[in-house]
Amino acid sequence: MNWVIDHIPELLSAAVDHLQLALLPVVVGLVLSLPLGWVANRWTVARAILVPVSGLLYTIPSLALFVMMPLLLGTKILDPINVQAALTIYTVALLVRSIADALAAVPDSVVQAASAMGYRTVGRFFAVELPLAIPVLVAGVRVAAVSNISLVAVGQIIGVGGLGYFLLHGAQSSPPNYQEIIAGIALIVLLALVVDGLLALAGRALTPWTRQQRGPVGRGRSVVSR
Amino acid sequence: MPTQGVRVIEFQSVTKRYADGTVAVDSLDLTIDAGRITVLVGPSGCGKTTSLRMINRMVEATSGTILVNGEDIRAQRPATLRRGIGYVIQNAGLFPHRTVIDNIATVPVLLGTKKAAARRRAEELLDTVGLPRELGKRYPAQLSGGQQQRVGVARALAADPPVLLMDEPFSAVDPVVRDDLQEELLRLQSELGKTIVFVTHDIDEAIKLGDKVAVLRVGGELAQYDTPATLLAKPVDDFVASFVGRDRGYRALGFLSAHGAEVVPLSTIPLGSPVDEARAALTGGWGVVVDENQAPLGWVSTSSLSTVEGELRSADLVAGGSLYVADSPKSGSLRTALDAALSSPSGVGIAVDSGGAVTGGVTAESVLKALDEARRSGEVPS
């Protein structure tokens, strides 16, 4: 434990970096995925292209994608953009399908009713379809966030890896510094658990209607009658 | 807003042909009366829902013109048009993520009403459709099917549109609830006087609710457009006759008031009377047993009393038939009077006043006599 106690400031600042590297791509990926998912849900042809292609993107090994990024983007090798861009691609790959499925699961009668009430396409999306997609969407975002938090460490291969630094550095020390490695792993796992938990809570807070008791409630019990 | 009095919908040779060549509606001409309930009815594939949805441009007509309040519906953007027309969808189509109040407030908020004001109005609408205000904070999934459907009606009424489109709104609820909802709609309509276009596949519902009924045949052709009474009495062809149903003669009696049927005095026997007194009070071998409010409990006859001793108890009674109200102005129809006579064990139907007390009896013969008189006086369409 001595090593850990001596390096708390470094560990904490690396953890903050790690979160930024992992979560900014989740936000950007979500913003990009919403229109793509909407398009995929709206036109069958678009879905037939977007869903398999995004699935394919997710199968690219992270190491290869990280290494290719400076070439594709023309950025410097140590630029954190490289890692964030790659993780954004993974996020989009995960969320496009999620969002398309979530939108498809909104009951047609509800969408029809919204149109008949006088919603235009965009208004209807934000007022009706998106809120109803939240439960499935949050599930997708949780997977993407946890996946990104673990993938950031791989970015250490190209010099930007948040807590991944301690894994590589500890392993390359002679003799290997197991305290350093374990501290890095433990913090990554902890971050993933905390972020996942917070997202789950946020999802619940955003969808109060899903927690209400199902089915009709007897008048006598909760309706005041005299 | 439309000027008073000209609220009317007009179909002018409207056709809907889908890309695959199917003709859903074929050159439909139809004028819908202002302030009335017009029912579009027909078998599936007759284009009734398509016709309804063309009014608010949920479906665009291929050719022809639809006028609402004398104005071509294509003159407005669809969303603008729809905000001015109430719409009640099958299964209510409520927004699951919004409370009942916010569901009802949807259209006023879209039209720019402040949220607080729209919610206050929504609370009043809960009263209008007969729901307790406490339900306002619930989510739709916490309501029964019938309650959801009432919320759907309240939502359609929220912006006080002159025209209300109802697409099979009561088809997904059980028969008892459906009956309630139908009665409620008629009560609402008597207060609000909206122009309502109502789609159903159920001819009984059409006849119960419609001021006028349009029967459509498969292929989207108008077969007959008449009042329910005329539809039952004079179907234009075999299709309409068979669609209207086999017992249409009997159901047509529902449009004639039982006012004309003779009500004869009936001997009533209070529950708990000595059996000897009861025997003495029978007319034609039968007597009606009543409670302390003169409400009928059942029948006794010479044969049913032959094995009874002492005082008359409820276990000694023969179950009665249906009742009909003979109290004007809310008098029952000849149909309920005839049913009362036919379902009674004595062959005499029990007439009650609006308070439920026995006022006399009616026989099938007297109902038929009343029908005969109605025919002669021209009350029956012929």
TrEMBL record, chain A:
Record keywords: Membrane, Transmembrane, Transmembrane helix, Transport
Domain ABC transmembrane type-1: 15-199
Swiss-Prot/TrEMBL GO biological process terms: glycine betaine transport; transmembrane transport
Primary location: membrane
Cross-referenced InterPro entries: ABC_transp_perm/SBD, MetI-like, MetI-like_sf
Name of one Pfam family that matches: BPD_transp_1
Record localization: Cell membrane; Membrane
GO cellular component, one term: plasma membrane
Name this protein carries in UniProt: Osmoprotectant transport system permease protein
Organism name: Actinokineospora terrae
Lineage per the UniProt record: Bacteria, Bacillati, Actinomycetota, Actinomycetes, Pseudonocardiales
UniProtKB/TrEMBL annotation, chain B:
Keywords (A to Z) from UniProt: ATP-binding, Nucleotide-binding, Transport
Entry EC number(s): 7.6.2.9
Matches recorded under Pfam families: ABC_tran
SMART domains per the UniProt record, alphabetical: AAA
PROSITE patterns linked to this entry: ABC_TRANSPORTER_1 (PS00211), ABC_TRANSPORTER_2 (PS50893)
Keyword ATP-binding: yes
GO MF annotations, alphabetized: ABC-type quaternary ammonium compound transporting activity; ATP binding; ATP hydrolysis activity
Similarity section: Belongs to the ABC transporter superfamily.
Record SUPFAM superfamilies: P-loop containing nucleoside triphosphate hydrolases (SSF52540)
Protein name from the UniProt record: ABC-type quaternary amine transporter
Top-rank taxon, per record: Bacteria
Coiled coil segments of this chain: none
Origin species: Actinokineospora terrae
Annotated ranges, domain ABC transporter: 9-244
Gene3D superfamilies (alphabetical): P-loop containing nucleotide triphosphate hydrolases
